[in-house]
Amino acid sequence: MLMGPGAPAPGVVETVTGSPFGAQLSGGTLPFFDPYGWTPETGVDEALAALGWEARTTCGGDADAALDRLAAHLADGPVVAGPVEMGHLRHQPGRAGPAGADHYVVVLDADDYGVTLHDPEGHPYARLPLADFMAAWRAGDLEYGAPFTLRSNFTRISRVLPEEAIESTVPRAVSWLGPENGDAVLALADRGADGCGPALRDHLAGFAIRVGARRLADAAACLRRVGRDTAAGTLTRQARLLGSLQYPVATGDDRSAARILRTLAPTYGTLRDDLRRRHG
After folding, report:
1. Is-cis flag, bond preceding 83, omega within 30?
2. What are the strands of the beta sheet with 102-110, ordered from one edge?
3. pLDDT per residue over 8-32, tens digit each?
4. What average pLDDT does range 215-240 have in this prediction?
5. pTM (2 d.p.)
6. In degrees rounded to 5, what are phi and psi of residue 75?
7. CA–CA distance, 107 with 67 (Å, rounded to integer)
8. Is residue 98 classed as helix, strand or coil in its secondary structure?
9. Which residues pair with 88 in a beta bridge?
10. What's residue 208's pLDDT?
11. How confident is the model at residue 72 (pLDDT cuts 50, 70, 90)?
12. Which residues 6+ apart lie within 8 Å of 75 measured at CB?
């Protein structure tokens, strides 16, 4: 959103964050279809570097200091605030308090009453009362990130073609794809086979599956774009398996869901082997 008209496609940005290459149980319990130990903060920094951009990142302090910092950086243009606690973004329908869900927004301006922001959830020029924004920006209910994290002064330092950025991500993807990713999926399968509780079902069906499948599909398209067809085929298979998980999870067919997860688990090792090969 801050890279301007020459920005790469969202699928390229998502791929070079590293997010499609793995699976994990955050905090030992909450499943995400992104690499073991990965966080969006890691992904943002890796994507900027891969694409030839840099930004100034600041965080911490109390609320008054954070607001002063926000005002100072807004004088030079829009900034990215996040991670923020999505449950406090009350311009989004249904948000009523902390939900442990992370998000990022682009802040356009701020005053004593509120902030105006672009929300990539689909809310351009949204207006949010200052108290709600500060509660979200404090990020106290999230498992990663520092309070009041702000990125500003986005600057292009080199011109990197999308294909170059994608190829540069491959060694990092290999490093992410250790055996712990498949182990996490198997642990989730065992847990689900015993009965998927309401909170886990809502998380999987409402967020984790669809986001994970989309990331895999984007990564498959990107890897095919740079001639890594074998890896792209494995990513497509992963996307199909993960996408097929949506119906059994949503309808309570936990045994079928567990079978799909057990089929998915070994594909992370396959993908790692595919990516280690320079051609094909």
Report:
1. yes
2. 53-58, 150-156, 79-85, 102-110, 114-119, 123-129
3. 999 999 999 999 999 999 888 899 9
4. 98
5. 0.93
6. -60, -25
7. 12
8. coil
9. none
10. 96
11. very high
12. none
